[in-house]
């Protein structure tokens, strides 16, 4: 891809740069603006994909809905029970703390780890009744009763943090579901007694506690569990993934920034070097990377070179 600076239009990706022959100054579009079109096109593409997927889901389930309708935030996909959420209900502060509802954590965990929301909340109900400070006699801690060695392996730095605890437990449940081909009964049994015991007995182990546990989970899933309407300030880590998809993250404007698009990130040298600029014309034309051209302009403005 190439950009002719002296009066020649740029290609659609790079937009337009031109030289003002009247005053000898060269004007070029900031790279954040160059990325704007790509950002808009990507958003349009994602929106189209979501609509297509929603239409397919409605068709397969026999439901009728307006053309192009997408499931509302907080809904669940009928065929899988996976919660659908566009982000969080809270705000992420500059120090990395997130104020969010307990239900939103479960919905994001369901979506991120591809687990039925009903299964996830049923396990939480059975384990701690949604108490983030719960500690069992065996040393299991938090909402989904994570053991200390599990917390270490999962990357939970604060086991009493509802966000980290639920996300870590969801990751563990997802691993059990994968081992047992999506069978929630066997996954629940493995969560209670260990996957080794489930494999050893070829099903739910003959332990009274585990037998009662899987029955309780099944009952909660059938009846439905209401997550307490509580809000917590938590500290997301890598277990959470992206918690800023559709919420206003606190940001500070960069010094001297102009024409900055919402959600834009500074371009890297690699991104700059993907676009080429043709400076001059005819035999004297010189081709250079866009990043090199910006540095060339900067040197010129400083009277260097």
Could you walk me through the main structural features you see in this protein, from its secondary elements to its overall organization?
The protein is mainly alpha-helical and 305 residues long. The protein has helices at residues 31-61, 102-113, 117-128, 148-154, 162-179, 184-193, 195-201, 208-223, 269-272, 290-301; strands spanning 2-4, 17-20, 25-28, 91-92, 98-101, 231-234, 276-279, 286-289. It has a three-stranded mixed beta sheet with strand order 1-7-8. Strands 4-5-6 form a three-stranded antiparallel beta sheet. Strand 4 (91-92) and strand 5 (98-101) form a beta hairpin. Helix 3 (117-128) packs across helix 8 and helix 6 (184-193) crosses helix 7. The protein starts with a strand and ends with a helix.
Major sheet: order of its strands? 1-7-8
Biggest sheet overview: 3 strands, mixed
Q: Radius of gyration from the CA trace?
A: 27 Å
How many alpha or pi helices?
10
Distance between the termini: 27 Å
Low-confidence stretches: 1-22, 59-73, 246-263, 301-305
Tally the beta strands: 8
């Amino acid at each position: 891809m190439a950009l002719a600076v002296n009066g020649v239009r740029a290609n659609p990706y790079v937009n337009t740069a031109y030289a003002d022959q009247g005053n000898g100054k060269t004007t070029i579009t900031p790279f954040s603006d160059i990325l704007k079109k790509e950002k808009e096109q990507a958003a349009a593409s994602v929106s189209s994909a979501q609509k297509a997927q929603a239409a397919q889901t409605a068709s397969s389930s026999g439901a009728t809905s307006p053309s192009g309708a997408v499931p509302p935030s907080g809904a669940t996909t009928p065929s899988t029970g996976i919660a659908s959420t566009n982000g969080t209900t809270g705000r992420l502060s500059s120090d990395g703390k997130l104020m969010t509802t307990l239900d939103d954590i479960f919905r994001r965990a369901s979506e991120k780890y591809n687990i039925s929301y009903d299964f996830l909340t049923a396990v939480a109900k059975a384990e701690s009744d949604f108490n983030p400070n719960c500690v069992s006699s065996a040393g299991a801690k938090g909402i989904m009763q994570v053991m200390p060695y599990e917390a270490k392996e999962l990357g939970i730095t604060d086991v009493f943090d509802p966000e980290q605890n639920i996300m870590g437990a969801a990751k563990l449940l997802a691993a059990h579901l994968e081992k047992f081909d999506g069978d929630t009964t066997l996954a629940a049994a493995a969560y209670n007694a260990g996957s080794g015991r489930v494999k050893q007995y070829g099903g739910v182990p003959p332990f009274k506690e585990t037998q009662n546990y899987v029955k309780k989970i099944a009952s909660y899933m059938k009846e439905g569990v209401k997550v307490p309407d509580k809000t917590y300030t938590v500290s997301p880590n890598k277990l959470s993934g992206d918690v800023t998809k559709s919420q206003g993250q606190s940001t500070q404007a960069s010094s001297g920034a102009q024409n900055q698009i919402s959600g834009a990130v500074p371009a890297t040298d690699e991104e700059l070097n993907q676009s080429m600029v043709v400076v001059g014309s005819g035999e004297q034309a010189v081709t250079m990377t866009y990043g090199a051209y910006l540095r060339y302009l900067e040197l010129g403005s400083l009277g260097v070179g």
